[in-house]
Design brief:
Blueprint: H1 20-37, E1 45-52, E2 63-66, E3 81-90, E4 97-106, E5 109-120, E6 131-133, E7 136-147, E8 154-158, E9 169-178
Antiparallel strand pairs: 1-9, 2-8, 3-7, 3-9, 4-5, 4-8, 6-7
């Protein structure tokens, strides 16, 4: 055997194993697909924000204010959205129904629009109505469909004056979901 030989290869020759170039091509193609999917929208939700509620109870003095902002400079803003309120609560929440005041305002109007919502958390058998697991459930309701948020659009969620401080509410949030696109998992809606 000569000094420069390795398994019978001539000096400077590249040792190739069968299937290595095929595997490298597959890895390169998969990497390109993954890199390209980074710009793909995976969820119809364009914007969301949640406000945490004190575990000791939601104080009537506390309000959650949401002002949707452009999510990314790549996408046009504002677009056409469904405006959705989302409430998350624990399975051991003592109240079956929760009343929430929702106020909407914008820069083009001086008078806020107020609505009272009665949110059912449990059915007659005290089983949670919302979707969820691990003793945390979620209910949603659509405030607007096919809506383009005006400048300064703000949604404020609070308890009505004089209502008791409910316990078991984890957080409340606002979502802007692109109109016409549905979630993969059906979500129970808040009863008005």
């Amino acid at each position: 055997m000569r000094v420069n030989d390795y398994n019978g290869c001539r000096p400077g020759a590249v040792l190739r194993r069968p299937g290595v170039s095929v595997a490298l091509n597959i890895i390169a193609a998969a990497s390109m697909l993954l890199a390209g999917s980074g710009c793909t929208r995976l969820s119809p939700v364009e914007w969301s924000e949640f406000a945490s509620i004190d575990p000791a109870g939601w104080s009537p003095m506390m309000s959650a204010e949401f002002t949707p902002l452009p999510p990314d400079s790549v996408y046009p803003w504002p677009g056409i959205y469904d405006v959705v309120v989302c409430l998350r609560y624990k399975a051991d929440a003592p109240q079956s129904v929760l009343s929430i005041m929702i106020s909407e305002e914008c820069d083009t109007s001086n008078v806020p629009y107020n609505r009272m919502y009665e949110i059912n958390l449990f059915n007659e058998s005290h089983k949670p109505i919302g979707r969820g697991s691990y003793a945390v459930y979620e209910v949603t309701d659509t405030l607007h469909r096919e809506f383009s948020p005006p400048p300064g659009y703000t949604v404020t969620c609070s308890l009505p004056e004089g209502s008791p401080s409910p316990r078991g509410v984890i957080d409340i949030g606002l979502l802007l979901r692109r109109s016409g696109e549905k979630s993969v998992i059906p979500i129970p809606h808040i009863k008005l």
